């Protein structure tokens, strides 16, 4: 079993020490005003109801659309996400002031971004995580987002029932339907760093499904800014909380990965274009399309395929939901096997989606002062799959997106059954294969 010492990406102000669970009250809530079933029913939180657009427009089309539509009830990015994030900062809910962190663009052709974030490193306690399994069952005894305080929640995020954008500043929580929420990241990487937690009360493990990815694309589309991106880390690719969530923040510079050249591979039915990254240290695929549903479906199929085949990966949602970068990686595996140089290990940088995209979050002043394009490239090159392995993974992905993947095989039957795949043991799950061109994509070898 491979294990590495890791620092959690998010530690709520309400995370409990071991043994505290017994002190919770059985009636009248737990006293923490948390997001769990003990406190959430009967609560009221802001609700942003988005219009389920099927197409994302840009340029002149965007201007024409804005002329047709009435002003939204609230400016989603400026007033709601960033404005409420600043409100929580004024209330002292963050573990450190991320706006005081030094940031610079590293000289060079790619424009890697370096940030010195010593607070993120020093104000966490280490936790042990497995890195050899992308699919792991949800464990309610470990930290999860039902344990955060409701004051950390910015708003509920749901599709509008009447097809129009609506905002309710004090809406009752429909706990029976498990709301999706946007909450602050109390250990932020950048300005406006938030978490999108789909269907929080369902306690979904960290694995992408079609519904959750489409929700993330709707959030990117609502923000409508090229500088507001969403990211996802699978288990084994430096996700550290096994409770389904996406991260997002605002940074007003282009990411290096967004500027790199690509080579077109194919265009799927539905207009989704798939390309491969060129001249970048991490090998990956780029999915582009104007239809949120078609784009989301293609990428979700690819992610589910990677999950079933136990391949760690990261996802960057860019360009207001029009571009998605899919990045399989192997750094944690190399780290656990002792194949990463001591020089890189000493930096204590764990390259997740933001680092892979070119935003290097550094924990030591010496690394920040000596940051160079060469150093960034050397670290990210260790993240990437080899050319041979990437070609193998690419073939698996393209086989998967040409058929219908049954998501039920990656859902656990219950929270106390340690199984990776519906109705299958770990050994059986490892024998699953993708068969191209068949409606029954999953077979046993």
UniProtKB/TrEMBL annotation:
Gene Ontology cellular component list: cytoplasm
Chief localisation class: cytoplasm
A UniProt-annotated Pfam family: GDPGP1_N
GO biological process: glucose metabolic process
InterPro entries per the UniProt record, alphabetical: GDPGP, GDPGP1_C, GDPGP1_N
Keyword match NAD: no
Keywords: Cytoplasm, Guanine-nucleotide releasing factor, Hydrolase, Nucleotide-binding, Nucleotidyltransferase, Transferase
Family: Belongs to the GDPGP1 family.
Protein name: GDP-L-galactose phosphorylase 1
Organism: Heracleum sosnowskyi
């Amino acid at each position: 079993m491979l294990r590495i010492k890791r620092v959690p990406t998010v530690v709520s102000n309400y995370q409990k020490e071991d043994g505290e669970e017994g002190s919770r009250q059985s009636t009248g809530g737990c006293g923490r005003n948390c997001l769990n079933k003990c406190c959430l029913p009967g609560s009221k939180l802001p609700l942003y109801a988005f219009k389920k657009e099927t197409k994302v427009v840009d340029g002149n089309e965007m201007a024409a659309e804005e002329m047709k539509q009435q002003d939204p009830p609230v400016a989603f990015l400026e007033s709601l996400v960033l404005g409420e994030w600043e409100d929580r900062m004024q209330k002292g809910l963050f573990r450190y002031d991320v706006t005081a962190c030094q940031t610079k663009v590293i000289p060079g052709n790619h424009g890697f971004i370096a940030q010195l974030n010593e607070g993120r490193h020093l104000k966490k306690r280490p936790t042990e995580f497995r890195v050899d399994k992308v699919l792991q069952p949800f464990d309610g005894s470990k930290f999860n987002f039902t344990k955060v305080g409701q004051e950390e929640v910015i708003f509920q995020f749901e599709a509008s029932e009447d097809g129009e954008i609506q905002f309710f500043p004090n809406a009752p929580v429909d706990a029976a339907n498990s709301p999706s929420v946007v909450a602050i990241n109390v250990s932020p990487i950048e300005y406006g760093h938030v978490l999108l937690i789909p269907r929080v009360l369902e306690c979904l493990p960290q694995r992408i499904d079609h519904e959750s990815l489409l929700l993330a694309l709707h959030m990117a589309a609502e923000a409508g800014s090229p500088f507001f991106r969403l990211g996802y880390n699978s288990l084994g690719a430096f996700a550290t909380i096994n409770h389904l969530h996406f991260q997002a923040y605002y940074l007003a510079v282009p990411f290096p990965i967004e500027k790199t050249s690509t080579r077109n591979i194919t265009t799927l039915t539905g207009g989704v274009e798939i390309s491969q990254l060129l001249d970048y240290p991490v090998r990956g695929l780029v999915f582009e399309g104007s239809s949120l549903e078609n784009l989301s479906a293609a990428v979700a199929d690819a992610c589910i395929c990677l999950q079933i085949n136990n391949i760690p990966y990261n996802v960057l949602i860019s360009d207001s939901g029009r571009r998605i970068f899919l990045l399989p990686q192997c750094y944690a595996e190399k780290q656990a096997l002792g194949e990463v140089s001591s020089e890189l290990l000493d930096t204590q940088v764990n390259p997740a989606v933001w680092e892979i995209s070119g935003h290097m979050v550094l924990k030591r002043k010496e690394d920040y002062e000596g940051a160079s394009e060469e150093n960034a490239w050397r670290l990210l090159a260790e993240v990437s799959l080899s050319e041979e392995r990437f070609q193998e993974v690419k073939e698996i992905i393209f086989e998967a997106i040409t058929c219908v993947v049954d998501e039920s095989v990656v859902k656990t039957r219950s929270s106390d059954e340690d199984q990776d795949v519906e109705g299958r043991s770990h050994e059986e799950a490892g024998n699953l294969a993708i068969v191209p061109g068949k409606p029954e994509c999953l077979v046993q070898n």
